[in-house]
Amino acid sequence: EQIEKGGYQHFMLKEIFEQPKSILDTMRGRLLAEEGIIKMAGIWDHLERLTNAERIIIIACGTSWHAGLIGEYLIEEFARVPVEVEYASEFRYRDPIISSKDVVIAISQSGETADTMAAIKLAKERGAFVFGICNVVDSSIARYTDAGAYTHAGPEIGVASTKAFTAQLTILSLIAIKLGNHNGNLGKADFMRLITELESIPKKVEEVLNSVDEVVKGIAKKFADATNFLYLGRGYNFPAALEGALKLKEISYIHAEGYPAAEMKHGPIALIDENMPIVIIAPKVGHYDKIVSNVQEIKARKGIVIAVINKGDTQVAAMADYIIEIPETSECFSPILASVPLQLLSYYIAVERGANVDQPRNLAKSVTVE
Ligand code: G6P
């Protein structure tokens, strides 16, 4: 096992550090940025299904569901197709309206999650075409879906999903950008700009890993005894906030809630006092000015701000108690970069607390029962 961990203390840490390579592996042979080509036979062989879809429904559980939420933002922004994201466990039991005009994208790292499988069966019975995005080759979901793409992130052993998540975001980016270009909603110049940027993501993830590790370790030491955490983000980084909070809950057993930053005023703001650490994802993209106001609101209530910001940002940096810097990228890819320090934060907090990082209590890597 020590050999399999490749010198890392835990599989989770190894998998976090593997991400520059796993994201590259996900793109390998698929993204030819200079030629302006995205290849993915498993999906493009049925591209017309996607093009003709009146609606795309993304079905998943856990971390994969968070990837699905970002998929919704990506597909709606670039391809302008309406997307709904459903928890498989809810979808399967609520007699959902679904027909042959719908296309389903099921996302599952393991390809074995019982709820996701049952939801796929239901969707197929009602005539929908189902694509699968799985990491485990030849898994049940990969075999049962009509078509799909593997994430190729390599085996993920740590129960808390890390590299599979960023691989899922990579695949969803490729699908959304290609579909948008194909159905005429994404012009050539924007298409080229996006794929060139996507190609640079593995390098930028590496940059994040090299630069934030010590900073995040220091923050983890300070907050290892916290009892609550709030994670906030806007736009594409709202699901990233949910995922950051989930990581912390899963492995450190600290209660954490993810929220859209603007929604804070409808509830979580009541929780803020000088003991509440608040992780706020605030790169200079989208509605940055709005997130600046959210930070002001938190500081006015003496909350402790741990901000994920772009290098060189001064506005949020001036107000935050702790900063974690990530490189600039397009808004749609910023959750990939922002997720990496949040994975590390949960990891180092769990280690500080002496938790069993790779096998947290009560959780399973793949949930094959209801
Ligand atoms: C379990 C795992 C999570 C995972 C979820 C969905 O709860 O602990 O890490 O996100 O199942 O799994 P899947 O394999 O379908 O992505």
UniProtKB/TrEMBL annotation:
Active site: 365 (for fru-6p isomerization activity)
Entry EC number(s): 2.6.1.16
Keywords associated with the record: Aminotransferase, Cytoplasm, Glutamine amidotransferase, Repeat, Transferase
Entry's Gene Ontology molecular function annotations: glutamine-fructose-6-phosphate transaminase (isomerizing) activity
Keyword Cytoplasm included in the entry's annotation: yes
Domain SIS: 46-185, 219-360
Main location: cytoplasm
Catalytic reaction(s) noted: D-fructose 6-phosphate + L-glutamine = D-glucosamine 6-phosphate + L-glutamate
Subcellular location: Cytoplasm
Presence of the UniProt keyword Transferase in the record: yes
The protein's assembly and partners: Homodimer.
Protein function: Catalyzes the first step in hexosamine metabolism, converting fructose-6P into glucosamine-6P using glutamine as a nitrogen source.
Protein name, entry field: Glutamine--fructose-6-phosphate aminotransferase [isomerizing]
Native source species: Epilithonimonas ginsengisoli
Gene from which the chain derives: glmS
